[in-house]
Amino acid sequence: MRRYFKIFIALISISSKRYLENRANVFMRVSGGIFSLIVSIYFIEIIFSFTSNIGGWTKYEVLLLTGLFRIITSVFMFLCQRGIYDIPELIKGGYLDLILVSPVNSQFYLSFRRSKPYEILSAPAGIFLIIYSLSKLNLTFSILDFLLLFIGLLMGIIILYSIYFMLATIAIWLIQVSALSNLYHIIVQPLSIPTDILGKGVSFVLTFIIPLGVVLTVPLQVFLHKISASSVFISVIFAVLFLYLSTRFWKFALRHYTSASS
């Protein structure tokens, strides 16, 4: 475990140095992220100017979800989105061969070999929105509430990682998966709204079939006392299950991998 932690820190350090070579690009990307958050808040304000709640969600609860959404996506993109995104190109170019013979777990290395350190700079805007939303909500929160929220969001990131990694793994058969970036945006978009306002059928699918609702909506519902605190265990179960499935699917795919040198 200590060895992999050192490798992880080294990979983050290398990625940070790479991106800091072009600081103007980093500034533009961070500014773009903040601008997109401002646009999201603007549209929420417009929608709630016509109604006091949508599907039982008030304006400040939706703003709280938006802030959490910003943090989750920032952390995910910071840690592993770029590394996973590069998998199809590594397969196509034959570079996966070198990784497979390296003395490190291939799934781990592929996931964290390239990070986006600048993405974490978008998180403070989300934190500010969370603090503002909490100040407007007439609710009392305990340390346990925040702990359950943290556990739920951590499990949500694992679920998001597992789904995205399995989609990238398909490149072993298809070779070219040029739409992986678009697939990422398709995956994360349902996270930006409470899934239970989409109707019972869609909510069921996004909770128990493709558990995107478990990534953010369920932990926040627990935090806001909309559902039982025991529902956090749903997040834990899905996180363990999908992480296991991603590992098994990767090993299964490697049995069908045709080496570039063969």
Q: What is the element layout, followed by pairings?
A:
Blueprint: H1 2-19, H2 23-47, E1 53-54, E2 57-58, H3 59-85, H4 87-93, H5 96-100, H6 106-112, H7 123-136, H8 143-169, H9 171-174, H10 180-188, H11 200-209, H12 212-215, H13 217-223, H14 232-254
Antiparallel strand pairs: 1-2
Helix pairs in contact: 2-3, 3-6, 3-7, 3-8, 8-10, 8-13, 8-14
Element pattern in H and E: HHEEHHHHHHHHHHHH
Report the average pLDDT across residues: 84
Structural class: mainly alpha
What's the gyration radius in Å?
A: 19 Å
The quaternary structure here is single chain
What ranges have pLDDT less than 50 throughout 5 or more consecutive residues? Answer: none
The main sheet comes to: 2 strands, antiparallel
Strand order of the largest sheet: 1-2
Structural account:
- The protein has 262 residues and is mainly α.
- It has one domain (2-254).
- It is built from 14 helices and 2 strands.
- It has helices at 2-19, 23-47, 59-85, 87-93, 96-100, 106-112, 123-136, 143-169, 171-174, 180-188, 200-209, 212-215, 217-223, 232-254; strands at residues 53-54, 57-58.
- The protein has a two-stranded antiparallel ribbon.
- α3 (59-85) crosses α6 and α3 packs parallel to α8 (143-169).
